[in-house]
């Protein structure tokens, strides 16, 4: 593993400077602006990254899991190619990551997490990732980090069209279509996608003597979805929005190696939202009203389980901004859950509420401060107030160099899920909310040469304590129940570098990210525990490296993803080996009248790496993809 880490760091050092010198006055201005993105306004001192548009143009048929794994050093656990895909930030688990769509949490109330394999990359506008505790801003679950998704924003004039057809190895096909219209007052977008996959790849069966080669026969899946976004300017200072998002997935859950045919699962997710924006002398008023329905049907040879959860959500915010000096946002969030689940004793309901205040203050041109506070109110629970304080300080600027000192201290919490509370015979009404504290500090360096070169380097160290960590574990009689099992400490170092440059007619991009993470129990409340040992499925080493070359109408993209050794038990008695994935894509853009045709050929896992993200769940070897995409304008 040490050799692979050395190779990754060496590649980062060699390739990134080689990718020097990209252009873009437009993106350069946004990068220099510390709080240029909406997600960063009240997040001083925190790490906020985005998925770049060049990657999304080439890989828009991918899932959100694929995109985040390729472009951010976070770790995803996937139960094979057709199973649940969940994320881990800074040594936490999947239920300790908040996922928000247009500012509202869409995590499953039953499980407390989101399945990233069912979230299509093609349906979003901006995609941002905030690392570290952010509960003061985003509420329950934002302990390790938050993923922020927004609807597309159609800013052009007239009609637009985007049609794509893609075919890949292992019987995979993807179709996508989007039509949009924009005028002075109206923006309208309608989109649909369809993904079919046999996933009939070959693999070595590690559970059998001699590791015989087999073909996966039980991982087929069908996914489709519809997206509608409408924004209308009612008056000069008033705007309404209507957003709809439906996804469907019918899949065979890939069985573990050596197992018989696995289970099947159907997921249906409907998300409806209406939004009102109004500006007055009192600032900007935002009111969001949403209805979510999450349906899951799990079947195997002996079980047919159905879960159906309806979520009603209201969020009202008032933002007052005074020039460029300070901005204050106050608001309230209300949630009502109605859950029907074969595992519950009847229909269950729960109410949650939260009030929050977010404050940004820039006392000088070189100092940015944020101070946030949230108080949650949940039936039968009393989470402590969660504050956060952040700082960005540009303490040095000379010629092309700028240096920033950043830091953040944040509280966090997570309320038990509906399954934790209401599962018949196992739900635990005595659970306490998880509570945590996170501190981070770092340096950020910008090197800018006009509009020809932008080099951004950042280093962050963090420390996190999470108490009353909830985990399902067997009791003395062998019954699995959720308990506040232990206190966990996570510490680590994050390094990143981004580069954009122009050399004549050639535009080059490069980015690299590396994380070192330790996550271990420091106190155990039941049993002996495994204090001082790395938590299962948390890699100490994780890194990504991406490069792009744009010459006239040609583009070449490469992505390298390194994942270190992971233990499959908290006692460190078994593990999965480290692995490195390399993906390459070549595309050409051609003008056809008023439209553009983009042809893409790519190869995933080009080095034929054998790897697993979950024990005994095979992943595909090298595969190929060919796609045609037509856009107007």
UniProtKB/TrEMBL annotation:
Protein's recorded name: TonB-dependent receptor plug domain-containing protein
Residue ranges constituting the TonB-dependent receptor plug domain according to the UniProt record: 45-146
Gene3D superfamilies: TonB-dependent receptor, beta-barrel domain, TonB-dependent receptor, plug domain
Its membrane topology: Multi-pass membrane protein
Keywords: Cell outer membrane, Membrane, Receptor, Signal, Transmembrane, Transmembrane beta strand, Transport
Source domain of life: Bacteria
Primary localization class, coarse: membrane
InterPro entries: Beta-barrel_TonB_sf, Plug_dom, Plug_dom_sf, TonB-dep_rcpt-like
Protein family (similarity comment): Belongs to the TonB-dependent receptor family.
Subcellular location: Cell outer membrane
Signal peptide: 1-20
